[in-house]
Amino acid sequence: MRQTHSRLSRLSGSSTVLVRGAGVAGLAAALELSRLGLAVTVADTSPAPGHGASFYAGGMLAPWCEAETAGPEVLKLGLEAADWWEAAVPGLVSRKGTLVLCPPRDQSELRRFASRSSGHHMVDADAIAELEPALAGRFMTGLFFEREAHLDPRLAMTALWQQLEAQGVTFRLGDAAQGAESEASLVIDCTGPGAIDRVQGLRGVRGEMLYLETGEISLSRPVRLLHPRHPLYVVPRGGGRFMVGATMIESDDGGPVTARSVMELTNTAYALHPAFGEARIVELGAGVRPAFDDNMPRVVAEREHLPPGTDLAVAGMYRHGFLLAPALARQAADMAARRLMENKGDANP
Ligand SMILES: Cc1cc2nc3c(=O)[nH]c(=O)nc-3n(C[C@H](O)[C@H](O)[C@H](O)COP(=O)(O)OP(=O)(O)OC[C@H]3O[C@@H](n4cnc5c(N)ncnc54)[C@H](O)[C@@H]3O)c2cc1C
């Protein structure tokens, strides 16, 4: 490892890595690359980082809950996420767990969720009231995933951007940086849904969300409400604001939220607590989650699957962008370092 680092430090003066895309995948990759001592430029067509799918995310770092629908790899890779984020953007990670609830008539949903996931214990009405006093008396049983965490993606993206600038990473924003490849030793595509049609095998999964504002209730942690048709979660953002998400629609349409989705999201929020019925809708938005057929994010290194002029892509983050960006950024940085050393004729790193 030490040998690899000394070979890398020989490269770092002469090699610039261009990261296209300043969403969670791009910023995490930029951090891991700069930790290796490489010069990094991040280019994004938006005027500021974090304005793609990352803008709409719940920011849940919930590897055990996600295992309900995802394979074991998501749990394995996601375990390090909360620690990585805490180190990267200190003070922004809340480690209060996730509460999973369901109405009494849907108890079978809770049993199914419990059997398909791990890292939880059953909670009764008293324990639910202790965890979330606002929900006292409303639910008889639930699951508590106490090791899970969450963050506010918008605060995290801004903090990471500032941190990267302070470390010397160059940002080219509002700029597609066409032609910048010729100045870079290596190009990594992190353009999220922008890579659909350019990175082979990607599709879009539309996710609609809204922000509610109410002083009537407060929550300490993300609460997932199971429902056979419209499972939903509510993530507290502080200041009486709650992010309510999210639809899962097979489409790469990032256009305005539909009336039907607003009804589904607000109905389920109302089922969690009637105070949400009087809350103000302060924001509606839709993001497109980039996904491969197996919904598993990955670093793509095969040139025939990549756009011309691109060496690697961190792609298909699906519904795991914040959860899996740390692990994939590390993989991408290691692969980038290896490629750079190979290109310089240092073929045995
Ligand atoms: C409603 C919703 C809720 C979610 N909740 C969670 C959650 O709780 N936890 C979790 O882990 N994940 C969650 N996700 C998933 C997560 O948001 C995505 O996986 C993640 O944001 C994808 O990140 P990305 O960096 O790949 O793409 P993006 O965030 O879309 O970033 C791509 C960037 O590339 C830029 N770009 C595009 N084309 C170009 C180009 N040609 N040149 C330069 N720049 C370009 C864009 O402007 C953008 O800034 C959620 C997603 C949605 C939609």
Provide structural commentary.
This protein is α/β, with parallel strands linked by helices and 349 residues long. It has 2 domains: 1-94 and 148-201 and 293-348, FAD/NAD(P)-binding domain (3-Layer(bba) Sandwich); 98-146 and 203-292, D-Amino Acid Oxidase, subunit A, domain 2 (D-Amino Acid Oxidase, Chain A, domain 2). It contains 10 helices and 17 strands. Strands 4, 5, 6, 10, 11, 12, 13, 14 and 15 form a 9-stranded mixed beta sheet that branches. Strand 12 and strand 13 (241-245) form a beta hairpin. Helix 2 packs across helix 10. The radius of gyration is 21 Å and the shape is elongated. It starts with a helix and ends in a 6-residue tail after the last helix. Bound molecules: flavin-adenine dinucleotide (FAD). Flavin-adenine dinucleotide binds next to helix 2, strand 2, strand 10, strand 15 and helix 10. It comes from Pannonibacter phragmitetus. InterPro entries: FAD-dep_OxRdtase, FAD/NAD-bd_sf. Keywords: Oxidoreductase. One of its GO terms (molecular function) is oxidoreductase activity.
